Write the C-alpha cells for this entry.
Amino acid sequence: MTAISKQNNGGLGPAASLVMQHYQQQLRTRRIYTIISAVVFFIVLCASLKFANDANAGKFFDRLPYFFDFILNFVPNSPLEIIRAMFDLPSPYADGSLKYNYTIDRVYLTNGFYIPHYFYQLAITINIALVSTIVGAALAFLLCFFASTNLIGSRVTRWVVRRIMEVMRAFPEIVIAGLLTAILSIGPIAAIIAITVHTIGALGKLFFEVVENADMKPEEGLRATGANWFERVRFAIVPQVMPNFVSYALLRAEINVRASTIIGAVGGGGIGEVFRLAIGRDHAAQTYAIIILLLISIIIIDQFSGWLRHRLTGHQSFEFGRGAA
Amino acid sequence: MSSVPSINPSERARLLAAYPQAFHRSFMQRYGLALIAGGILVYLVACFFAFQIGPAFANGRWDRASLYLQDWYSWRAQPRLRFEDGGTVRPQWSSRGQYPAGANIDWLQPAANGGYTVTYGSRDDRLEITPSKVDVYLGGTVYPVTITADAVTAPADAPAAIQQDGTKVIVSYGFEGQAEIRTGQVFVQRRFLGWSNFFFDTKSQFWGRSWGDLAYLATFGDRLDPARSNLSHMRDDFLGNGVWQHADILSKLMQTLVMAFVGTLLGTIFAFPLAFIAARNITRNRAANWGMKRTFDFLRSIDMLIWALFFTRSFGPGPIPGIAAIFFTDAGALGKVYAEALENVDDKQREGVKSVGASPIAVNRFGVVPQVLPVFISQSLYFWESNTRSATVIGAVGAGGIGLKLLEAMGTNADWDKVAYMVLLILIVVFLFDNLSTFLRQRLIGERAH
C-alpha cells in the first residue's frame, strides 16, 4: 500500500497519488470478492458433482473404464447392416430374432411398395412438430396482443394473459402427454397437444416482446382516422411484427422437432420411441441407422428453416433461439 | 370504414393513370398470403385425417378424464364393505388406506342392525347398507336397491344417478363420490377436497392433529419421543411419509436442478476457450476454425435425447447421464453462440491493446473478453433456464431426476395427486430460477438487453 503510493509519488502530484491509492484499494477489494465468489462457486460445483455421483446407479469413476466397452461392443456386424436396417432390407445375419429381422416392420402402402419403418416414424415425428408449431403459433398470435403494454390498457388483462403463458411454458410436457395418453390411448395426439401448449407459452412471450417494441406511429395515424382497436392492430402493428413472428415460429419448429423426438421416447410414438427400444435391446445396426437418420433430418430441417428465415425476413439475424425454449 | 374520406371518380382516374406502378401489384403480392394460408389449412386437414384425430377423440375415455383431473386436487377414500354370513357388514381397506386401523370415521358409521351408513356430504345423500338391501337416499328420497344371491336390482323409478350395470348397480353422487353395489360387497368411493395425509401418514404420531395442536407440540409440548425433539421428529415423519415420499421426491427434484446447473456450467467452461479457436477473427487458421465449428455442429445436432440414452447405457440411470447429455448439447450450442459473438467484436479495442505491445493472450483478455463477457453470461443464463426445464424431460428417458418419478407416478394411473404435487414443485422451481437468472443477468451486465 505505502510502497505503491511512494512509487507513484515520483510521477504524480499529491491529489493524483491519492486517487491512485483509492484505485488500488478498489482493485484489491474487487479481487477479494472475485476470489470469494469463485471459491463458493467451486464448492457448490463439487458438492453438486458429489451429490450426482452418489445418486447415480453406476459411479462415475467406476464406470469410466467400462464406458468405452459399451461403444466397442456396440458395433454392427458390417457397415452395410446400417443401410439394411435403414431401408428394411433382408439381412444375411438373420437368425429369426428381432435383431436382424428388418423386413418385419415395413409399412406397406400398396402391395409391392413400402415405406421403410424408420422413415415412416420420422415422418410422424416431423409432422407432430409441424402441426404443433402451426397451431401453437396461431394461438400465440391471437394471445400476444392482449399481453403487450402498448395495446392493452388494463393491467389485469395483461397480467392474466402473461401468467397463462408462463404456466404453459413451465408446465412439464410429459405430464400433459401422459395425461392425454391415459385418456386418448397411445397415439400422436397426446404429443401434439403437449408440444402445442408449450409452443403457445414460449412463442407468446417472444411475440408480445416484439409487439411491445413495435413502432407506434402507424398506430397513431390510424387512431387519427378513427380506426377501432382491431383495425389499428391489423393495419398498424401486424405488418410490422409479422417478419419477426414468422422467424420465431420457424426457430420454434426446429426446436419442436427435437421436442417431439423426446416426447416420443417417453411414450408418444414416432422415431423417439423406436430409438429408445433399439438402444435398449442392443440392436446396434438399428440404433446407428436411426442416429444417422435423425442427424441428417435435423441438419436438413435447420438449414431449410434458416434459408427460409433469411428469405422472409431479409437477413435479419436472430439470436440462437433457445432463450424462451 | 365510413370514416375514410371519399375521393371523386375523376381524381381517382387521374391518379391511376399517372402512377400505374404504384397501383399494380404482382400476383404473389395479391394472392400469396391467401395461397399460403390455404396450403397450411389443407395440410392441417390432411394431418387431422392422417393422425385420426377425430376417431381418437370420439373413442377417448372422457369419464376417466374427469376422474383423473379431480384426482389432481382431491382424494378418494375407497373402503369395500363386504357382506358377512351373519347378516353384518365389515369394511375392508386396501393397504393404502388413508385412515389408521380402528379410527372413527364420521361419514362411515356402523348402524344398529349390523349394517353400515355411508354419508355423502349430508343426511339427505346417504347409503343404508345391509347384506340384503341397500337404501339409497338421493336428495332426501329413498330408493331401495335389493340384493339377491346372483343379482342386484335397482328400483324401476330410479333417477339417472342410479345406474343398473349388468348385475351391479352404480350410484353416483357427483363430486362427493360413488358406490358400486355388488352381490357380495359395496365398493364405496368417497371424495374429499385436498390431499390426504400430505404432511403425516397414518403411522405417524402426529397424524390427525389440528394445526394449533401441532404448533403447541413444536414449541412447548412434551417430547412424544424422548430421543429427539418434536420438531426433528416432525421433520423425520414428514420426509418419511410413506404415501407421499417427500424425501424421495425432493431429492429427485434436487437431482434435476443439479443436472441442469452442472451440465450448463461445464458446457460453458468447455465452450469458452474453444470458441476463441472457432472465431475467424481471433484464430487466423481456417482449418482450425472449420474443424472447431464442425465439432460444435456435431455436438449440437445429436439430440440431447440421444446423448441421454447413450450415457444411461454407460453409467446406469441417475443424474450423471443427464449432466453428460446437457453438457454435450450445450457445449455445441454455446460454442456456436460464443463464436458468433466473438466474430462480431469491435476491433478498435484489440488494436489499442496490441499497440502497447501486449502478448496475444493479453490482447484477448483485455481487448476481447470485456466486450463479449456480457453476451456470454446472458446466453449461459438463458441456457441454464431452459435446461432446468429440459432436465425434467430428459429424466424421463432414464437420466435421473424428477422426470422419472413423474413417469412412474403417471404409470400407475392412481397417483395423480402426487403428479400434481410434483408439477407444482416444478412450476415453483422454474419460476424461481427464471427470476434468479433475470436478477443475475441484470446484476452482472446491467439493463442492456441481449
Observations:
- The mean pLDDT of chain A is 85.
